[in-house]
Amino acid sequence: MAQRSQNYGSTDQRVDVPEIGFSPTELYSLSENITTNIYTINTSWKTLERAYKNIGTSKDNQGLRDKVHVTQLSTNQVVTQTSKDIARLTVLMRRGDKQQKLQIEKLTTDFKDALQRYSDMQKSIAEKMKRHILAITNIENSMDGEDGEETQRLLQAQEQEHRTTQRTLEFQQGLLLEREDRIKRIEGDILDVNQIMRELAALVHQQGDTIANDYLVDTIDNHIENIHGNVELGAQELVKGSNYQIIKLS
């Protein structure tokens, strides 16, 4: 019977390195999510493009501009999540095969292209909104203009018109300020593509370090367990040998 060689207390153990964080299910889920999110970003870009064409035309209204803001808010959240998913996928596939790495590169490129188009359209639509402040419907007062009216009545009408005009101007000024605030809000939605790509690179680095550290801790724990097991097994062998010698001497 072949004897098993024991190396008690040695840390020179041949441990198979696992695929760090690799999970086929997670890989598929992340890839699907990223693909869907890229489609969503492209769809939002088309929505903004249609709105852009209507800004400054008879179809321009506050409802249209509010829709632009809502579209940008939801899409910006999609962009943030997609960045996180790509970072996670990149780390997962550091040990993937060539085809898998090419897939990640394509998804990353598609994401960056979609993001660039979307961000450019955000800037264009914000600039056009600034050039075309929504027209405010003036409050018009109809006045009788028949010949022969008394001078006093005409003066009263002119005074009333002056007061009405003043109130209208104040009202218009308030609306203009409100609409300027809304345009600033639209401008605040604009994404910085370069900043997002920098954050994506940082996420990849951060997740890679975290997973590598976790793997290192697990590997050390495995080594300690192996050493402990070998020492215990060695002690058992020594006890058996000692008992055998005692029996033999008896």
Topology overview:
Blueprint (H helix, E strand, L loop, with lengths): L23 H31 L7 H31 L5 H34 L19 H38 L4 H57 L1
Helix pairs in contact: 1-2, 1-3, 2-3, 2-5, 3-4
Output the keywords.
mainly alpha; 76% helix; disordered C terminus; single chain; Methane Monooxygenase Hydroxylase, Chain G, domain 1; 5 helices; 250 residues; elongated
Kindly summarize this structure in a few lines:
With 250 residues, the protein is mainly alpha-helical. It has helices at 24-54, 62-92, 98-131, 151-188, 193-249.
**What fold name goes in the CATH topology slot of the domain at 24-140 and 163-203?**
Methane Monooxygenase Hydroxylase, Chain G, domain 1
Tertiary shape: elongated
> Percent of residues in helical segments?
over 70%
Number of beta-strand segments: 0
Q: Roughly how many Å apart are the termini?
A: 27 Å
Arithmetic mean pLDDT:
72
Keywords: Neurotransmitter transport, Transport
Organism: Camponotus floridanus (Florida carpenter ant)
Protein name: Syntaxin-12
Family: Belongs to the syntaxin family.
Explain what the structure shows.
The structure is a single chain. With 250 residues, the chain is mainly alpha-helical. The protein has a domain of 158 residues: Up-down Bundle (Methane Monooxygenase Hydroxylase, Chain G, domain 1). Helix content is 76%, strand content 0%. It is elongated. The N terminus and C terminus are likely disordered. Belongs to the syntaxin family. One of its GO terms (molecular function) is SNARE binding. This is Syntaxin-12.
